[in-house]
Amino acid sequence: MALRSAIGPKRTLASLATSIRMPDMEDVRALMPEERALVHLLLASKGDARPITDTVQEMRDGGMGSLRFSGAEERRYGSTLAEAEFKDVDGTPVSVALMLDQTGSLFELDIWKIDFSPLVRIPPVEQITITK
Question: What's the alpha-carbon Rg for the chain, to the nearest Å?
């Protein structure tokens, strides 16, 4: 209730989040070869041969490795195209999802290490299992 009074009676958390740009992204950089191989594997698992965007922004996720593909400013989540999993070099399971925006363009590569620790490395594609 305290949060409701702080943001006002007609505002919701979702509307507040969209009205305030939070600094959740790093600077634009080139997609690294191991990231490109992972995205290609996920696309190929669905028979999708689209070109892969060359530039990405690292998401501030504690170093787990999630990326947002460069594109139009006003994009939002549309769907999840493919999912995979692998073990990081420390043995911790890692979940991966390739997401599309509302227009079907590459949106995010979500990487989640189940203990929330930083990702050490993306393994070779032979060590990655497609789950969906």
Answer: 17
